[in-house]
Amino acid sequence: MKVLHVNAGLENGGGLTHIINLLKEAKLEDLDFELLTLAEGPVAQAARKQRIYTHVLGTNSRYDLASLNRLKDFINQGHYDIVHTHGARANLYLALIHKKISAKWCITVHSDPYLDFAGRGLIGKIFTHLNILALRKADCIFAVTKRFASLIEKKAKVNPAKVHVIYNGIFFHGDSALPAKYDDQLYFNIINVARTEKVKGQELLLKAIKKLDDSHIRLHIAGDGSQLENLKELTRKLDLAPQVTFHGFMTQKQLKNLYRRMNLAVLTSYSESFPLVLLEASDNQIPILSTDIGDIHMMIPDQDHGFIAKVGNVYSIATELEKAVNTPSVKLKRMALMEKKYVSSHFSVKNQLAAIKAVYQKLV
Length: 364
Description:
Helix content is 43%, strand content 16%. It is of the alpha/beta class. The longest helix has 18 residues, at 329-346. It is globular. The relative contact order is 0.11. Its EC number is 2.4.-.-. It is an enzyme of class 2 (transferase).
């Protein structure tokens, strides 16, 4: 079975990680999977680093529809059995040529398709409509949460028989492969790994820490985005500057080194799918706290595995933070180990790929 994964190529963060991890696992299993990006960018660069067989279509702009014939010919001449798209732009391209290719077509929905172009006016509404039409035309849809699956079936009116819930996964490491922990006796260190955008809710986290009024707490925000300067200003207004460090974008290597000193990983988003950053924190044996987003109860099944706060609720976030801060370090470490054992058995890339392959095989 020959499979081609297609993406615009400009993804960064979770979308890029999802694609590269999946193709890396396929390579390890000696499967015939390839990647095509519409343009040169971070996805193609990351794939080459992993020695994944990568093609770049070379579109000139977001609206370069003249490249459709080249894409059609590439797919047909490559004799692919499955074409699997990621992202609205790749979905649109396949929607326009799907009747002219012999391959079956699958889409992974990484985020809420009704919010992908929010705030972009008429153009955003047009792209949202086109993306929904693409979802209806595809042979199968992979949704990364049950909520997304329900949204696609009920609101987008996609045939439920075509929709499959398959959770994201990561590569988990053995304890010996992780950097040695550094036990900071002075501070309780919290890490938030997320783009500094409104949807990630870092302003809620800052206000919650202010409520706790605990000078021993240190917050590390690893991420860049449009709200970075606003968050820095809010930090000053809350008189939290000595307790908060903005690291900006960090590589995985840099993050692993920072994880050594962390006591808790926190995500206070308003909306998420199935956050890989929490799986990565758990892999590094850090207990996790999240707002009640997506299918987070699948990742944190009970209070012995982590902390869950209400979405958009500063008081609830502060309450859960206080529970974590006041939990004895021995118990926190035990919680982190229990959570890692749980998520590594349920949400590995190997499991993710096996579930996707089962759907591919039914299609072909």
